[in-house]
Amino acid sequence: MFNKDRWREILEVLTSNVGRTILTAFGVCWGIFILIVLLAAGKGFENGIRKDFGDIATNTMFMWTRSTTKAYEGLPKGRSFEFKVNDVQAIWDNVPNLKFISPRNQLGGFRGGGNVTRGIHVGAYNIYGDYPEIINQDPMTVTSGRFLNHNDIKEKRKVAIIGQGVKSELYEKDEEVLGSYIKIQGVNFMVIGTYKKNNNDGDGEEAQKEIFVPFTSFSQAFNRGEDVGWMAITAHDGSSISQLKESIVDEMRKRHKVHPEDNRAIGYFDLYEQFNRVESLFFGLKAIAYLVGIMVLLSGIIGVSNIMLIVVKERTKEIGIRRALGEQPMSIKKQILMESIFLTIISGMTGIIFGALVIYGINSLLDSVGPVDMFVNPSVSVGVVSGALMILMISGLLAGFIPAQSAIRVRPIEALRTE
Amino acid sequence: MIEIKDLHKSYKMGSNSLHVLKGINFTAEAGELVAIMGSSGSGKSTLLNILGMLDGADSGEYILDGVPIKDLTETKAAQYRNKFLGFVFQSFNLINYKSALENVALPLYYQKVARKERQEKALNYLDRVGLKEWATHLPSELSGGQKQRVAIARAMAAEPKVLLADEPTGALDSKTSYEVMDLIQKINDDGNTILVVTHEEDIAHMCKRIVHLKDGVIVEDKKIEQVRAEQYV
C-alpha cells in the first residue's frame, strides 16, 4: 500500500493522459458534488423546520375539554365539563412513564382585549396560570429576576414573569422592571422576572408577549376555583406520548363520566406525532438526496470503470512484458484497483471541496440577506463526508474490479504477440 | 540444465487442430549457447514460449534445473519466470515510459529487492552492456541496438538460470546485430546458458550448437565451431 514505486506508477499512468483523466474524474466529482449539495439543502430545510418547533419538548401532548357528544350514566349529551386540579394526581397515579404534567389556565388569547394595564400603558397579552415545571415543556430563557417556584404556588403569591414584548410595551426603555406592578384584569401582580423565547416561526412575536403567574394565584384572582383549562403532558424520553395518550384520555373519561366511546369530548394535540411526521419527511428528503446523488455518482463510476478498461487495453503489451519478467497476477490486479480507487477518491474529494464551497457561499448569502423562511444553515456533517468517502472507496473498488480482472486475464504470450 | 522429453503442442484453429510440436526431445547443459533454427511455422517460437513458461505443453516433460515444470498456476509461473528465466525479444519490449535504468531494475522489483540495491545492481548491468551514461534516458531516446542491449541487461539483472532470446537481432541491421551477438557471446563466456531463436544463418553460427526444427520435429542437432562476433564489430 505505501509502496513508493507503486505510487509513482499510479501517478505516471494517470498523468500520461491528463485530459482524459480530468474528464473521467469529472463524472465522479459531479456525482459527489450533487450528493453533498442535496444533503446540505435537505439539512438546511430540516434546520429551518426544527427552528419552528423551537425548544419545545416534543414528546408532549396538550389536552383540553369540549362538550360531550354522547349521553352516559344519566347525563345528557352536549354537557360541558372542566378538568379539575385533582385530575393531575389521578393521571400521575394511573399512567406510568410521564415526566411532567402541567395544568394550565389562560386569559387572553383569541378573545383577549386590553387586559393588562400599567399606569397609562395598556396591552393585550396571554396570561397563563402555571406550575414551575412548565419551563421544561415550553422552554424560555429567564433574562432577569427568576421564574415561578413552588413557594409562589403554595403561598398564592401574586407575582408575574413577563416576556420581552410585554416589557417593551408597558415600560420605558430604562425603567426598572423587577419589583414593579402590573394590573391584570384589575388585579395587581408584582413582576419578578422577564423571559425570552427562542423560536422563529410566525408566533415568534406572540411568544414574547406572554405573562406567567402562579397557577394557584391565577385560580383565586380570576375565580377559576378547582378548574383546569388544559394540560401539557410530557412523557419520559424512553416512551412516546403517542402510546400513552389513550390511557390518559381514558382516565379522564372515567373521572368525568364521559361515554368511553365519546371521542370528541376531550380534545388533544399530540405534538410528538406531528414531530414524527416531520421527522419522516426529513428522512424522505435524505433518502432522495442519497438516491439522486448515488445515481449520478454511479454514472461517474461507470465512466471510471470504462477508462480503466481502456487503460488496461492500451497497456496490454506492457502488462505482458511485466508478466514475462515475473510480476505476480495479484500485483497487477492491485495496481489497477489502486489506480481506480485513487482516481475516484481524488475526484470525489474535489467534488466534496466544491460542494463545501457552494454551501459556504449559500451560508454567507443567507447571512447577508437575513433569515429565509424554513431554510437555516445548510450544512453536511463530518459523518456525511466520511460516509461519502466510504462510498467513494467502495465505488473505486467496484470500478476497478472488472478492468483489474481483465488485466490479469491477459496472457503474456498473447500480449507480447501484439506488435 | 534444460531437459525436454516428448513434448507435444497443438493449437485449436476453429474446428481444425494444428499440431505444432510433434514430440520434441532436447537437452541443454549449463553454459551452452544454442541456436534454434527453422523457417516460420516450424514451431521454434512455440518451443521457446513453452521453455519460457509463457505457454503450456499438451503433453511431455519439461525439467528446468532439476525442477519439473508442470501444472503451473499463473502465480507460480510468474515466480519461476522471475527466478529462472531472462527474456530478450525481437521488438525489445521495453516499457516506454520508464528510463533505461528503471527497465533494468524491473525484474529486481518483482524479486522485492530494496530500491537502493536495485538501482545499484541495475546500473552495474547497464555498465556491463556499455550504457551507463544512458541510464536516465527513455527507450524512445535510444537506438535499436542500444534498446536491445538494455533489454539484455534487464534479462540478466535477475541473474536467471537461462537466457531465452527470441530473434534478438531480427529488428537490427547487421552491424548492430553483431554487436548484440558479441554481447551475448560474452555473457555466455561467463557461464550463462543461452537459447537463441533465429532464422539467420550467420547469427546461428555465432552459437556453439545449432538445433534445426522443421514441421514440429528436430531434424538436425549439431555442435559447431563458434564464430566470434568480435571480429565484425
TrEMBL record, chain A:
Domain ABC3 transporter permease C-terminal: 291-400
Entry-linked Pfam families: FtsX, MacB_PCD
The entry's keywords: ATP-binding, Cell membrane, Membrane, Nucleotide-binding, Transmembrane, Transmembrane helix
A GO cellular component annotation in the UniProt record: plasma membrane
Keyword match Membrane: yes
Domain of life: Bacteria
Domain annotation MacB-like periplasmic core: ranges: 21-249
Major site of localization recorded for this protein: membrane
Membrane topology: Multi-pass membrane protein
Subcellular location: Cell membrane
Recorded family membership: Belongs to the ABC-4 integral membrane protein family.
Name by which UniProt lists this protein: Multidrug ABC transporter ATP-binding protein
Organism lineage string: Bacteria, Pseudomonadati, Bacteroidota, Flavobacteriia, Flavobacteriales
From TrEMBL, chain B:
Family: Belongs to the ABC transporter superfamily. Macrolide exporter (TC 3.A.1.122) family.
Organism per entry: Flagellimonas aquimarina
ABC transporter domain sequence ranges: 2-233
Official protein name in the record: Macrolide ABC transporter ATP-binding protein
Domain of life: Bacteria
InterPro entries, per the entry: AAA+_ATPase, ABC_transporter-like_ATP-bd, ABC_transporter-like_CS, MacB-like_ATP-bd, P-loop_NTPase
SMART domains reported in the protein's UniProt record: AAA
GO (cellular component) term, any one: membrane protein complex
